[in-house]
UniProtKB/TrEMBL annotation:
Protein name: Luciferase-like monooxygenase
Lineage: Bacteria, Pseudomonadati, Balneolota, Balneolia, Balneolales
Xref: SUPFAM superfamilies: Bacterial luciferase-like
Domain of life of the source: Bacteria
InterPro entries in UniProt: Bact_Lucif_Oxidored, CmoO-like, Luciferase-like_dom, Luciferase-like_sf
Amino acid sequence: MTLLGKGHTKRGAPHICYHSSNYFLNAPYDIMNVTYSVLDLAVVTEGQTHADAIRCSRQLAKEVEQMGYTRFWMAEHHNMENIASSATSLLLGHIAVATDTIRVGSGGVMLPNHSPLIIAEQFGTLATIYPDRIDLGLGRAPGTDQATAQAIRPDRMQQVRQFPRNVKQLQQYFSTDNSTSAVRAIPGEGTEVPIWILGSSTDSAHLAAAMGLPYAFASHFAPQQLHAALEVYRDNFQPSEQLEAPYVMPCVNVVAADTDEQAEWLSTSLKQMFMGVVTGDRRPMPAPVDDMSDVWTPREKMAVEQMLTYSFIGGPNTISEQLSDFLDQTGADEIMIASYIYDQTQRMRSHRLVADIMSS
């Protein structure tokens, strides 16, 4: 990513413009030009409490800040025994107070679950306390099962259809122009919190392009439409006050270790966790096993491996080759790393190895 610097919108509010230099110049891909970030869900492992998982997330954020990661995002999920990130904005404040420079944000907030005004107030408050460090990634999926989605908001499906309008309403609440409106976000007004569109299909790509917003793609669990969505986004992008050129950030799973064999063993926790997604058994993430054939059926294996298409597992040389190939194929401006590893020390080691690869 090339940071063009802070400028001013037509309304005089500060903003940041990004330029996707590698993609538009068709230059040979240089991994060192790619910004790297972290997606975290406060995953609960076997034997942990929810408080333990949150402490581990906070510790990880402090460590990856020192490693040179740009963002630490957390995702909204509900009614899942193995994920403790349901109150996303509260956790982001917990992360932001423990760090100094890393950007903290949502990957994402599921906007149809919420009133745009409440999200503007929550993230506007965060941006007021931690200026120039807060991101707001927005998705429209429920982040849970249908029964829980109904409990969160009975009119949720109507709000899904209103998603583009509600994104624009959020932008209005964050702007200085809203100072004369009858309904205002205080704190929040004038903070111009950067908004991202999250998605896993071409529908989200069309919206991000039309609104001129940066685009984060959930290729770490929904790989099918990645390349089609990036093409739609870039081909249809309309410059905006927030962003002058397309900016894409796909998310991938990475399990890095000192050797390929160790990484493969560690990755069995990731595979078991995603098997729980397939079967609906969302128990805490289990410890690694020596042989996955004792754990899953052939059909479950096929489903999990399809979801984990963009999962990079191995020692430093293997991970370097895999990430370089992926970045070359996608022309990504930034890559977001999700590392589901049972042991916290090994998880931080994985992120260290990725940071070394991306910066060397």
